[in-house]
Specification:
Elements (H helix, E strand, L loop, with lengths): L4 E5 L2 H9 L15 E2 L16 E5 L4 E7 L5 E3 L5 H8 L7 E8 L2 E7 L4
């Protein structure tokens, strides 16, 4: 079946970027190829596949519909929930924490926060 979950450690160095653009760099193979789209979604017409979105259920009580921007590997919000920016803020993510993304199916995931040692 392959990898069923990934863990993304939050560090002092990546916290600022993760609060703004949630990166899954180094975990590209965890997601299906067709959730990766162009920086400008209108350029997706040039692809030989239709870019799909995936649904992420969060432990903050809301869902995020997203695709992934190719080359930068950041989640691009496609939902009304304000996406990962809202998640990082509401969960008050700090260095030492770990974000865990579990695969339920190819296009459905759970995201939860594991607190680091205080």
């Amino acid at each position: 079946m392959g990898i069923s979950r990934i863990e993304i450690p939050i560090t002092r160095q990546n916290l600022f970027m993760m609060q703004r653009q949630f990166s899954v760099k180094d975990h590209e193979s965890f997601f299906p190829y067709d959730v990766f789209g162009a920086m400008n979604p209108s350029n997706n017409v040039d692809k030989n596949y239709r870019v799909r979105t995936m649904l992420i259920h969060t432990d903050a009580g809301f869902e995020i519909e997203t695709d992934i921007v190719e080359k930068t590997f950041v989640l691009r919000n496609r939902s009304m929930a304000k996406g990962t920016t809202r998640y990082m803020s509401e969960k008050n993510v700090k260095p030492g924490d770990v974000i865990i993304i579990e695969k339920l199916s190819s296009y459905e995931y759970n995201m939860k926060l594991k607190r680091g040692d205080a």
